């Protein structure tokens, strides 16, 4: 692998500026293969050398992929003009320059949200042409009615006249007020507006999958985890909607 400057390597993968990295090196807070490096312009092999800053290992991967189990009250944005952003939930040691949420999840909704600094991947996931499905668990104020299945399959017409694309909906096993919806589009408050159109109301909404990647049930609300290359590829695989119906854990136990 070609050699690159240490400060360039660190600055591309963290929020540190090059001047900050130079200062940290001078203090002995940057190590390469376990040994402090005093000069920030030292050349390293990104494929072979292990780098730490203030005791935190710096991944050799150029881009960062983070799955957040988003809680309520945070906006899917990098701009805090509308409230606290989801970026604030990413621990400092996991951050890099240019992190942003790939797609959006409403402020009062919870669940799976990809945060990355890879614009090309975000475009692949969000582009309607790629048909990346997303599955939501909706806690309803009234019991699920079987007629919803046919109505959603035909395409719900919202109160303002907008027509939604046909989609799947089904009641969860052993829960009359819990439904799962699979969408291939993302209109504003779409799931809530679709259920309103059939005379029901969504009390809580949680996104539980992006493509074939299912939100791990042991990832606490408000917490993040790194995604591996195999996890990223999973997003581009088709999920078995019917299999989701049998998942036993309570999606809203920590709302």
Which helices and strands, and how do they pair?
Layout: E1 3-5, H1 6-13, H2 18-26, E2 30-32, E3 35-36, E4 43-45, E5 51-53, E6 56-58, E7 65-70, E8 100-102, E9 110-116, H3 119-126, E10 134-140, H4 147-154, E11 168-171, E12 178-183, H5 190-197, E13 202-210, E14 213-214, E15 224-226, H6 229-234, H7 241-244
Parallel strand pairs: 9-13
Antiparallel strand pairs: 1-4, 2-3, 2-5, 5-6, 7-9, 7-15, 8-9, 10-12, 10-13, 11-12, 13-14
The CATH topology of the largest domain is given as Pseudouridine synthase
Order of helices and strands: EHHEEEEEEEEHEHEEHEEEHH
Low-confidence stretches: none
Q: Please give the count of helices.
A: 7
Number of strands: 15
CATH architecture of the largest domain: 2-Layer Sandwich
* Oligomer classification: single chain
Class derived from helix and strand content:
alpha+beta
Question: Which structural traits does this protein have?
Answer:
single chain, alpha+beta, Pseudouridine synthase, 2 domains, 9-stranded mixed beta sheet, 7 helices, 20% helix
In words, what does this structure look like?
This protein has 255 residues and is α+β, with helices and mostly antiparallel strands. The protein has two domains: 3-58, Roll (Structural Genomics Hypothetical 15.5 Kd Protein In mrcA-pckA Intergenic Region, Chain A); 65-244, Pseudouridine synthase. It is built from seven helices and 15 strands. Strands 7, 8, 9, 10, 11, 12, 13, 14 and 15 form a nine-stranded mixed beta sheet that branches. Strand 8 and strand 9 (110-116) form a beta hairpin. The protein starts with a strand and ends in an 11-residue tail after the last helix.
């Amino acid at each position: 692998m070609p050699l690159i400057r240490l400060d360039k390597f660190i600055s591309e993968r963290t929020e540190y500026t090059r001047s900050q990295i130079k200062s940290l090196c001078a203090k002995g807070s940057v190590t390469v293969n376990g040994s402090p490096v005093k000069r920030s312009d030292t050349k390293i092999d990104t494929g072979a050398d292990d780098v730490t800053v203030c005791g935190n290992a710096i991944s050799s991967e150029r881009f960062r992929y983070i799955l957040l189990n988003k809680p309520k009250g945070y906006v899917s944005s990098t701009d805090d003009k509308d409230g606290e952003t989801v970026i604030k939930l990413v621990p400092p040691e996991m951050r890099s320059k240019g992190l942003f949420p790939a797609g959006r999840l409403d402020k009062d909704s919870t669940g799976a949200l990809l945060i990355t600094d890879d614009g090309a991947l975000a475009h692949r996931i969000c582009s309607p042409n790629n048909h990346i499905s997303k599955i939501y668990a909706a806690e309803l104020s009234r019991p699920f009615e079987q007629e919803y299945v046919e109505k959603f399959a035909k395409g719900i017409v919202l109160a303002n006249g907008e027509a939604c694309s046909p989609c799947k909906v089904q009641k969860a096993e052993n829960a009359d007020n819990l439904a799962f919806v699979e969408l291939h589009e993302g209109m504003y408050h779409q799931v809530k507006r679709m259920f309103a159109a059939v005379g029901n109301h969504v009390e809580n909404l949680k996104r539980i999958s992006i493509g074939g990647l299912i939100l791990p049930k042991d990832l606490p609300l408000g917490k993040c985890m790194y995604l591996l290359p195999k996890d990223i590829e999973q997003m581009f695989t088709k999920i078995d909607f019917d299999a989701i119906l049998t998942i036993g854990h309570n999606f809203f136990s920590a709302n």
